[in-house]
Request: fold
Amino acid sequence: MQADTLLTGGAVITMDPARRVVENGAVAVSEGVITAIGTAAELGEQMQAAEVIDTTGHIVFPGLIDVHAHAGHGLIKTMGMHGGNRWEDICGEVYTQISPPEFWHAEARLAALERLRFGVTTGVSLLGGGDTIMRSDHPDYAAAHCQGVLEVGTRTVVAIGPTRAPHPIIYAEWQDGGPRPYQVSFEQQFDTSKAVAEDWHDTHAGRINIAMLYPVLRDEHEREMAAQDYSDACDQSRAVRAYARDKGLVFTQDGHWRGSIRRAQALGLLGPDALLSHCIDLHDDEIALTAETDTKIAHNPSANASITGRCPATEMMEIGVCVALGSDATAPDRSGDMFRHMQQAMHYHRRHFRDADVLPIGRVLQMCTVDGAKALGMDERIGSLEVGKAADIVTLDLARPHLQPGNMPVHRLVCFANGNDVSNVMVGGEMVLRDARATRLDEAEVLRDAAGEAALMIERMGGAQDLALPSDFWGQREGQL
Reply:
């Protein structure tokens, strides 16, 4: 048998239905898909490959999947994070007023490169931040993001949609000399989102996919919004949801908490193609609703929302809900390293129950592989190493002090590894990270471009003061050091 690539000699964690782990295993790839999995001895005899990659001393596993993160945040990161709501205010200003397409392209390449280096082959990116700040006034911004990801070579699911009522809202097109403000209606935002879906969904060999988004409606919105505005928001959420269903797109919402899932059900928003993030402090009936409707959950254990409330992820999984793992990166104190978030998830729930056996190691790996793929409706293509699936494959180098001795590979992978241990990444059969270096583009140029766009952003907003250390940074007030 002939193959394009044979990865041989590593410990292969398949995440297939039998959860096979093949010590001294091998994976054969042809025309972008996996064609055989077995021991190195078996496939060595059966296969002739154009390229043989020796993965001895490595773990070979499916590309990791991050089901909730934000585009744009990579150039803002920790700015203003000590100033109450200042960090979110910066996001709002930047994303709607001072972010030309060049900003979104530079940030997309930086974020995709970060994911690539961490072994994340597929990730959701909301085109904006907060629960109602979307760059949905023109398709050029989403196009710039998608093009940036393509240059790196990973997969992205771009979530885009209108902002929450009332409308119109003020956006700005950045031009030489400053921003040109203009009013944007719900209809314009919705048309933009539709155009992005028409142009980009399931394109470039499945590397680019689009999801639709409408902000969560919570109790405070019904209580505090003008009656007509709230009624408009309900109608708009239904319209966006209907479009997602009609086009076969994932519908996602950012920031569910106590009571909002009841409201989403009443609005007809739940279902097997719905992905709800955070989901903290849910009522018992809301937990049951997610199971009854086969709604998917994006659990973000490292996010601020998981500090202010608890996502009952383990309870939902016990009744059959698909709960996948999200980084909520980069915002404002976390990266896209899914190893960090797997470890955080285990400790988060074990501390809650005071039980070290809660959320087993293999189950948390499932959350960012097969369950991540299922949450995105892509489980027929990615999420596990199985014959016929896309060859999204990661290798991780065990020749590190913190990963030795190299026995018990699944334990080493989940409990001890970090993203910087990743050595190779294949997406759709193409080696896009080789020996820990991106193959499609110059990493140094990506970093220079990102730094340049960040500097322009800071200059445009007069944000130099948001880079300073606060007086209580070291845990003491100024004058008490």
